[in-house]
Amino acid sequence: MSTITPPRAHATTSPPRTGVRHLGPNWYATVMGTAIVASAGAALPSPPPAVALQAVWALATAALAVLLAARAAHWARHRDQARRHLADPAVAPFYGCLAMALLAVGGATLSVGAGVIGEGPAVAVDAVLWTAGTITGLVAAAGIPYLMVTRHHVTPGTASPVWLLPIVAPMVSAALGPALAGHLPAGQGREAMLLGCYAMFGLSLLMTMTLLPLVFSRLIHHGPLPLALTPTLFLVLGPLGQSTTAVNNLADAVRGALPAPYPAGMAAFAVLYGVPVIGFALLWLAFATALVVRAARGGMGFAMTWWAFTFPIGTCVTGTAALARHTHLHAFTWLAVALYALLVAAWAVAGARTLAGLVGGQLLAAPRPAPATAPTTARTAFPRGTAPGRARPGQRSAARNASPSAPGASANDGPYHVR
Questions:
Q1: pTM
Q2: What is the pLDDT of residue 211?
Q3: How confident is the model at residue 258 (pLDDT cuts 50, 70, 90)?
Q4: Residues near 143 by beta carbon (within 8 Å), at least 6 away in sequence
Q5: Distance, CA of 295 to CA of 143 (rounded, Å)
Q6: Dihedral-angle region of residue 390 (phi above 0 means left; psi in -120 to 50 means alpha; beta otherwise)
Q7: C-beta of residue 312 within 8 angstroms of C-beta of residue 238
């Protein structure tokens, strides 16, 4: 996606700083992407040095605290903009990132931060963040689709992987809940929590199966996503890797919590489900990577959507590491290590570009208006060899680069700041 800006009188003038007015809920993706580096590293059979993971966890915790305060100020001072975000179908799904940021930091606190603050405080922090994240995630999973049906103006051909964000949040709760349930006393409370995690696994999985065909249909019938949105294709990996993590973690947690034959059945299901899903995740990873390379060659610039390269890949790391633990296959171990290396590289690049954008002021500046596009006629003459209803390659490319993904939005509207 590209925009046209008028010449400036002074090329060295920095963009105006507007505080938190244009700080959208998508910024929580930075917390998710940072926390998963710590927790995914801890899940590896041979984890990186503990001090490195603890430093990343501390960074994610600090980032969450800063963003919660900044977003609270956003709602207090710029309520009109906050309402506009909720009314925008391109921005509202990012409220799922709030829930996942809370959950990700809570899970990392238990798996990594316990070595710094102690197990007792880590359990208490995780309990608070898991509860808050789960409630927020369930509200988003039900509320955002409701807004899309009743309030948002969604036109055909605008389906986006971003739509998956609200419904993936309960899957994150299902994946991280078993570790917390192990600190509950045996009995009804622990059993209810584990089966509740299974229920959240199911609701998230079935909603993903409902929305994913819409996303793929949009790609087939309307071509590649706009350049700034292309990285969001990696969001599809989120429910795949996280669901594999969830079923494997639950299989470990139900031992001693549920009567036979459920533990044995859940352990078998974890492998029988996880292996095919990771196979599909690898296929989608190759597909999404090819489209990202294509977009990069077409001039894709940095946008906050680059954080989609982090958390979804991290879920695949935890999923493959869990399969390695249950199957004892070295292939899964090496796959988890390779994916973790990819995760760290993506996090470093996205983090460096985000920091540079914050220092320069571009990422918090007001969105620039989209360029005017020429109106299209109702009927189009198709040259020989082209079919009605499908644009020629040049037409599709022009439309992709000039048109935003959401009706009435500019290339930099909502959560995307393309510079």
A1: 0.85
A2: 95
A3: confident
A4: 166
A5: 33
A6: beta
A7: yes
